[in-house]
Amino acid sequence: xANEKSVWVVAQLEEGKLLGVTFELLGKARELAEKAGxxxxxxxxxxxxxxxxxxxxxHGADTVYTILGPEYKEYDVEVxxxxxxxxxxxxxxxxxxxxxxxDGRDFAPRVAARLQTGLCADCTGLEIDAxxxxxxxxxxxxxxxxxxxxxxxxxxxxxxxxxxVFEPLPEDTSRQGEVKAFTVETKVTPRVKLxxxxxxxxxxxxxxxxxxxxxxxxxxxxxxxxxxxxxxLAALFEKGAVAGSRAAVxxxxxxxxxxxxxxxxxxxxxxxxxxxxxGAMQHTSGxxxxxxxxxxxxxxxAPIFQFSHIGVVGDARKIVPLLVEKLKDLxx
Amino acid sequence: MNIIxxxxxxxxxxxxxxxxxxxxxxxxxVENILNPYDAEALETALVLKDKYxxxxxxVTMGPPQAKEVLKEAIAKGADEAVLLTDRAxxxxxxxxxxxxVAALVKSCGDFDLVLCGREASDGCTAQVxxxxxxxxxxxxxxxxLKVDFQDGKFIVDRETENWAETLSCPAPLLVTMTRxxxxxxxxxxxGKMKARKAVIPEKTAADLGLDTTTVGLKASPxxxxxxxxxxxxxxxTEIIQEDEPEAAVxxxxxxxxxxxxxxx
Lengths: 332, 264
Known about the structure:
The complex is a heterodimer.
Chain A: E1 7-10, E2 13-14, E3 17-18, H1 20-36, E4 40-46, H2 52-58, E5 63-68, H3 77-91, E6 95-99, H4 102-115, E7 119-123, E8 125-128, E9 134-140, E10 145-150, E11 157-161, E12 178-181, E13 193-199, E14 213-217, H5 224-234, E15 240-244, H6 246-250, E16 271-275, H7 281-284, E17 292-297, E18 310-313, H8 316-331
Parallel strand pairs in A: 1-4, 1-6, 4-5, 5-12, 6-11, 7-11, 14-15, 14-16, 16-17, 17-18
Antiparallel strand pairs in A: 2-3, 8-9, 9-10
Chain B: E1 2-7, E2 9-11, E3 17-18, E4 25-26, E5 32-34, H1 36-52, E6 55-61, H2 67-75, E7 80-84, H3 94-106, E8 113-117, H4 128-136, E9 140-150, E10 153-159, E11 163-170, E12 173-177, H5 189-197, E13 202-203, E14 223-228, E15 238-241, H6 245-258
Parallel strand pairs in B: 1-6, 1-8, 6-7, 7-13, 8-12, 9-12
Antiparallel strand pairs in B: 2-5, 3-4, 9-10, 10-11
């Protein structure tokens, strides 16, 4: 049965496993669906189920629509768009939510353009009314401005939602839900061919999104050698990781995978050190919700201090090695 | 090889600051610039032109002053440029914009590659590129770091949060760039002279054969109902300012211990 209000979450898989952001979106979808008196459903596109749909139900899904087969093993925008659009045409959801990951932001606009409907990118706030109309709130201008957007005359209304904004529901394996396998009638052949895929080298290091203490550096670190000193500081914490601003990534002192900010990742560690980062909105939009923020910058007027609980006016290049030394002494 | 680069003129968002008292944006003196990601797309096109020979056409949609970024692109090595400027396209959301940009791309004739920046630094949606690809009916690769051409196919390096991918695709293809192999080059003297003399054609929606009921504010499925500056919780920053870094570090360690970050 078509439910023209239902709230859908398009799951994102990596290596056959659900990414946590799927559950974050599902938690929010559940809340929206209850407010609008409808269902929260998940679309699972991948090679095989292997218990994934059960995980979705345990995290709040009413129905899990599965589109499975070897052709869905690797994400291909055209193959996935063809499949999802066929499913949407069949079941006519009111709302479709995508993960605002790099692949999600590749996928969602292609679907929106094919369905000729509205899409809000990178949302950080969602509300729904009794009729199922969603108010999508998103940052723009490097986090300086927020806009609230509606798509009132087209369905489905669609948006991508940033990771680490909403909380997943606790897993409840006693929850009941339905799994509906969907067969895509008209197939398409992928035109883009994947030649090589490798995990980005973090050399067994903790990913910044999983770190409890982030030691971040920016242009003010001055050189690759100085930047390397941040590793020593991060290593002093059990779940510490090194991150960088866009400037540090541009200088190739750190990988793009460890970039914090608008064109990188949004993080919320317990402790965030910002060394030699001036604090442009592009950066602060990705870290301002961290528990304790410590900034070290030569410029007493640097905007980063507005976001910091502890600010040291000084040269980060000198402070970092001294701090490492002092903390090492204390550990002895 | 024919390459079309889609660009946007944007306010330099890194210059925009928030007035901490009034929570309003300080826009005074903020320059308009070529969207930084579009600079990556332009450099990628110019690298391909250097290596294999290509005609690089740069297109944009915007007010007449958007011509500035097209002239900048010509000064840096682009061959031609076209501006779509028309009140009929004003207020377009990403879907309506993508219809207009797709028509603009088509009006440039046959192409092998369309290059865009990954996203614009003002709207930050990353939607127009893929939506243009859909309207053109061509494949897309987003968030790319490098584009090469070998044995009749484009070879594209792409990076997601945790994966590095290499993909291949024959022409025509649309690619959005996160980063080029190097920073956008400086303009040569000759390039600057060429840009100064260049006459950039201005097109209207009608010139492109666009149905004006498909573009502009009214044809946009999304509607902005509220714009606001974020509430920034006022943080009481404890500032440490010492002449000697050793003294600053001592104080910092005290504070870190007091906050429970370290044991002392």
